[in-house]
Design a protein that fits this description.
2 domains; 225 residues; 24% strand; single chain; alpha/beta; 6-stranded mixed beta sheet; globular; Rossmann fold
Length: 225
C-alpha cells in the first residue's frame, strides 16, 4: 500500500511542487499549524484513483492520516452555462460528519467548530450559512437535502478502499456501524431526495475516497432545478 501511495504522491508532487510543499510544511511545523492540501484532479480516469492513500515516502506518512496535514479532494460538478447567475442570498453549506461506532472515533463538535472558525468572515458577512449532520445516516442526509438543496457539501469522516474501489464510511441507520457507500450510492442519496445537486452546481468535498461521482451524476442526467 505504501508503494502504491508513493506512486500517487509522485504523480501530484512533482519536483517543484514537492520542494514547495516541504518548505511550507517546515514553516507550518515551526508555527505549530497544519497544512491543508486540496486536490482538484482531471481527467476522471485520474480522479477515480484512491488519492487518500497518497504516501510521502521521504517522511514516512500517509497525507490523509498525518495529524499535521488535512487532505481534501474536490469534486467539481460543473454548472451549465445557462445556469450561471449572481446570488443575492447566502450560500448553503451542508457539513456531513460520519462517525460510525466501529471506526476510529471522531469528535463531531470539534470538526464543526474547526470548519465554522475557518469560515468566520463569510459567516459574519452573511455570505454563507451552515447546517451540520452529526449522525450521517441515509435518513438524516435525505432529510437535510429535502429541507434545503446545498450549494456546498463538506464530508468529514473515514474512507475505505478495497477490491480496487473507494467508499465513504457513513452510518447504518439500524446498527450505528459502518455503511459503505460507493459513488453510485452516494449519488443516489441526492437522487432519492429529489434534488438536482449534481447538475445544479453543488460542490462536494470529500477526503478523496469517492472520486467518480462527477461522471456518474452526468450519466444519470439529473435535471436542474
Amino acid at each position: 500500500m505504501k508503494q502504491f501511495g508513493a506512486k500517487l504522491y509522485d504523480i501530484v508532487f512533482t519536483t517543484k511542487i514537492h520542494t514547495l510543499f516541504s518548505k511550507s510544511e517546515a514553516v507550518a511545523r515551526e508555527k505549530k499549524q497544519k497544512i491543508r492540501i486540496r486536490l482538484t484532479i482531471e481527467p476522471d480516469t485520474l480522479a477515480s484513483l484512491p488519492w487518500e492513500l497518497t504516501y510521502c515516502e521521504e517522511r514516512g506518512y500517509f497525507l490523509s492520516t498525518n495529524p499535521s496535514t488535512v487532505l481534501s479532494h474536490y469534486l467539481n460538478l460543473s454548472l451549465p452555462k445557462n445556469r450561471v447567475r449572481r446570488r443575492n442570498t447566502p450560500l448553503d453549506m451542508l457539513i456531513i460528519i460520519a462517525n460510525p461506532e466501529d471506526q476510529t472515533p471522531l469528535n463531531p463538535d470539534e470538526w464543526e467548530r474547526m470548519i465554522v472558525n475557518a469560515l468566520d468572515k463569510p459567516l459574519d458577512a452573511g455570505k454563507i450559512k451552515i447546517r451540520t449532520i452529526k449522525r450521517a445516516t441515509r435518513k438524516e442526509i435525505s432529510k437535510a437535502l429535502l429541507e434545503q438543496q446545498p450549494d456546498i457539501v463538506q464530508f468529514v469522516g473515514h474512507g475505505i478502499y478495497h477490491n480496487g474501489k473507494g467508499y465513504l464510511a457513513l452510518v447504518d441507520d439500524r446498527t450505528g456501524n459502518t455503511w459503505e457507500v460507493d459513488d453510485e450510492r452516494f449519488s443516489n442519496i441526492f437522487l432519492g431526495a429529489g434534488t438536482g445537486a449534481c447538475r445544479a452546481g453543488t460542490r462536494i468535498e470529500t477526503g478523496g475516497c469517492i472520486t467518480s461521482a462527477k461522471p456518474y451524476c452526468r450519466s444519470r442526467n439529473l435535471p436542474p432545478r
